[in-house]
Amino acid sequence: MSSRFLLGALCAVVTITIWAGWLVVMRVGMASHLAVVDLIALRFAVAGIVMVPVVMRRGWALDQLGWTGFAAIVIGGGAAYTLTVGAGLYFAPVAHASAFTQGVLPLTTAVMAVIVLKEMLTAWRKIGIVLIIVGAIVIAGLGLGDFGGRESIGQAIFLSATLLWAAYTVALRKARLDGLHGRHGRRRDAVAARTNI
To answer: From the CB of residue 135, how many other CB atoms can be counted at a distance below 10 Å?
Structure first.
C-alpha cells in the first residue's frame, strides 16, 4: 500500500470528520440557545481573520472567476449555505442534514457540472447518481408519515443548500481554482504581474 494512498485515505477520514462535526456542533449550539446567525458569525469571523493574509497575497481572482463566479463562490460556499443548513436543522435532525447535504451533494454537483461545464457522465458516475437517489428516497421514505410536516420541510431546505454548494464547486472548477487559488491561478497571476511591471 503506497504512502500516497494512505495520505489520501487519511485526508478522506479527516474531511468526513470535519463535515460531520460541524453539523453536530451547529445543532448543539442551537440547542444551547445560540441563534444560527451567532454560529455563522463565529465560524466566518474566525475563518475570515485567519484567511486575510492569504487573500491579501493571492487577490480575489476576479480575472478568472468573473462577477458571476465570484458571487457563486461567496454565496454558495459562504454564510448563505451555512444559514440554509441551519434553517433546515430547525425542522429535521442532524442525521437527515448529513444525508441530504453531503449525501446528495455529488448528485447536484454532477448535474450542475453537466449543465454548466458540459461534462460527460460516465457509466460509473451514472451508477453513483442512481445509488444517491435511491439512498435519499429510502431516508425520506422513513418519514413519509410526516410528509408535508416538519421533517420534510427540513429535507427540502437541505436539498436547496446542496444547490448553493454545487454552484460554489462548479465555479471553482470552471475558473480552475482550488480553495487557495490553485497552481493554475498562481501561475496566471505571476504572468500578469510580470506583464504589468
So the answer is: 15
Q: How far apart are CA 128 and CA 105, in angstroms?
A: 12
Q: Which residues contact 94 (CB under 8 A, 6 or more apart)?
A: 23, 24, 27
Are 139 and 99 a contacting pair, CB within 8 Å?
Answer: yes
Single-letter residue type at 138: V
Provide the domain count of the chain: 1
DSSP state of 33: T
Q: Which among 174, 155, 74 is positioned nearest to 116, based on CA atoms? A: 174
Q: Write out the residue range of the structural domain in which residue 156 sits.
A: 3-196
Instruction: Select from 100, 80, 78 the least CA-distant residue to 23.
Output: 100
Q: Residue 78 has what DSSP assignment?
A: S
Interval 64-86: pLDDT, tens: 888 898 899 888 888 899 889 98
Q: What's the pTM value of the predicted model, to 2 decimals?
A: 0.74
